[in-house]
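thread: overnight batch results

M.L. [08:02]
morning all. the overnight job finished for the chain we discussed friday. pasting input first so we're all looking at the same thing
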Amino acid sequence: MKRADFTSGLAITVRKHEAIYQVAREREPRLVDHATAVALFDALAARSGLAWEARGWLLHVIAVEYQRGRHPIWHALAARGLEPMLARLRTRMRGPAEERGQAIHIALAEELARLRIARADGLAFPLLTLRRALERALLTTAADRDSELEEQQAYMDYAGRHTQQPHEDAPPFVECLAAEVGQLLVERSGGDDVVRVLAGAETLGDQSERLSAAHVSRECLQKRHRRAVVSVRGALSGREP
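M.L. [08:03]
and the structure it wrote out:
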């Protein structure tokens, strides 16, 4: 399925179900600025200039509405807002274009339905969680899944024999580790750009557009990202590169 065909199919679905959108718009304040479903569809385009925070909250509303009734308009709007991520997944998949497009639609519908929207960390939309779930659904082979199940079983067997945990209070430990890794990335990349990409708060493409006025190229950001990740891996393993 070509990207243009993919987008036009979503647009047709959105136009067809305008009445459903208007019902949701009456109860949801975050939709007030978008008078029609087509207006929201256009605002969610990758190059619309919509700020990530606003986009995140719109995706939050869309996911909630989809989980409320599983209506295709919300699936289409979610796919529109997530199209850059879906396009990257599509290029990594194998097989005919039509089959890849269909697989993405099915996986997105399933993962949106089970996505936990209310997040304790305050994220408007858990983009990184969704991306990992889609990668697992679309790119993981049966052999990989069997291997992972074997590893999980081995861990459960080990945990049954060794009841003492390495850290008695896991959440603070994980938060501390995440903060330290984030700080390392900031220090070794010269800013928070690498962290924003890894956390899913911003795509590399969006970041390069945002920083184009400062004459920072996409290639420069890619090199900065690569150097920072290699450096942090070395620091965490005790083997500085």
